[in-house]
Amino acid sequence: MNLFKGTISNLEYGLKYATLKNKTIAHNIANVDTPNYKAKDVSFKQLLAEENEKQISAYRTDERHFDFVIKQTAPSVYSYENFQYRHNGNGVDIDKEMSELAKNTIYYNSLIDRINGKFQTLNTVIKGGK
C-alpha cells in the first residue's frame, strides 16, 4: 500500500526544491562582500528545460487513455558566470536575494501547510472521523 505516493510525495519534492533554493540564497547572502563571487540560483524552469526528454508515469483507468512517463529529478544549482553587480567582481544583488528569500519562505510555508492538512486528514480517517 503506497499511502504517501501521490500528493504527499509531490509536496516532498516541492519541499526539497524550496530547501535547496533557500540554501542557495543564504549562500549568496553570506558571500555578498566576497570579491569575484558569482551569484547562484536554483530554477525549476531551467531544470525542466534540461530534463525535457524525461517523463513521469500516468495512472490509466482505460487503455484508450494516453500514456506518458515523466521522471522526477532533483533540482540543480547554476551560477551567473558573466554577471558582475559590483566593482569588485561580485555578482550578488542583496535586494534581489532578500526578495527571493521572502518569496521562497512563503512558498515553503504554503507547502508545509498543505502537508499538515494532508496529515490531519489521514489522522481523522485513522480515528474514524472523531
Overview of this protein structure:
This protein has one domain (7-126). It is elongated. The protein has helices spanning 7-30, 44-50, 94-126, and strands at residues 40-42, 77-79. With 130 residues, it is mainly α. The mean pLDDT is 79. A two-stranded antiparallel sheet has the order 1-2. The protein contains three helices and two strands. Helix 1 (7-30) runs antiparallel to helix 3.
Secondary-structure-derived class: mainly alpha
Number of domain units: 1
Q: Total number of β-strand segments?
A: 2
Order of helices and strands: HEHEH
Round the Cα radius of gyration to an integer and report it: 20 Å
**C-alpha end-to-end distance:** 24 Å
Helix fraction by DSSP (H/I, runs of at least 4) = 40-55%
Largest sheet: 2 strands, antiparallel
Low-confidence stretches: none
Strand content: under 5%
Q: Which strand order does the major sheet show?
A: 1-2
Topology:
Blueprint: H1 7-30, E1 40-42, H2 44-50, E2 77-79, H3 94-126
Antiparallel strand pairs: 1-2
Helix pairs in contact: 1-3
Quick recap:
This protein has 130 residues and is mainly α.
Which properties best describe this structure?
single chain; 130 residues; mainly alpha; two-stranded antiparallel sheet; elongated
